[in-house]
Amino acid sequence: MKSTSLFFLNLSRLFFLFMVLIPSVRNADAQTIFQEDKNNFIALVEKSDETGSGKRANQHPFTLHEQDITAILSAIQVVKNRNTSTPLFTSEQVALLAAYLPQALRKATAQQDIVFALSKEKRYLAGLKTQTYYVAGSFFVADSKLNILIGEFDKVANKAYEMAYDPTSQGLVKYDFNFGQREQAKFSFNTPLSFSAHGLKLKAKNRFDWVVAPTQLTLEASVEEETLSPSNRENTPSKKNVAGSAPLPAEIDIVARFKRLDALKKANLISETEYAEKRRQLLNEL
């Protein structure tokens, strides 16, 4: 009896491991743009068969510049309470998306979305332990606007589950992510958002999981500055070098740029020589 129970226990473990290792149908035909492991990726997928606006073709391929993507993604905040908010994306996640999303949009067809899942680490217990969290969603361009669907925010990695089915930390466990939907899901992301850049808005008042952003932030910013009178221009706070982002003090701006540079180096998107040169340029601006 004991051996029979052990057999079925091992069989059930193998079954669950098998299910974990099989990617979802939607990802089976995905075209990978970036992948660090099973749960950190940016990919092209065929649009889901939804009703209403989901049937409309995307405006792909599309050209969107890195600095505009950085400005858009850095400007989205998740409201925690009346007095505090936190960025939807970390600076490292912004750097990765800004580096790979232009490539994905250029390659995408009118029937493809760009989906992503990216992790971040948070320390607790005075920094002695870390916990992994994921943000996931999708991008597409329609009506010359970048649409951002949020499926997951701070999805917690299940360390006990990973230890049970991947005890040697080989990266075998693959999580099932929600990439957001054009048709409102029953349990969609419903936490309020705020924006620190001009032009960003929610798709609808009753949806916090769908953000729409202009794709010509640089042009809009230059036109706005040209229309200012000399007196008003003197009283207007200076903007970041990244056009379209919110006005920030120079000290905060330079720190953010250092973080993005470090993220690019960590993701092996630039060489050691390029990193050293860019870092020297930033130091010269101090």
TrEMBL record:
UniProt feature, compositional bias: Polar residues: 228-239
- Which species does the entry assign this protein to? Alteromonas gracilis
| Protein name, UniProt field | SHOCT domain-containing protein
- The organism's superkingdom is given as Bacteria
Q: Which residue stretches belong to region Disordered?
A: 223-244
Q: Which UniProt keywords apply?
A: Signal
Cleaved signal peptide residues:
1-28
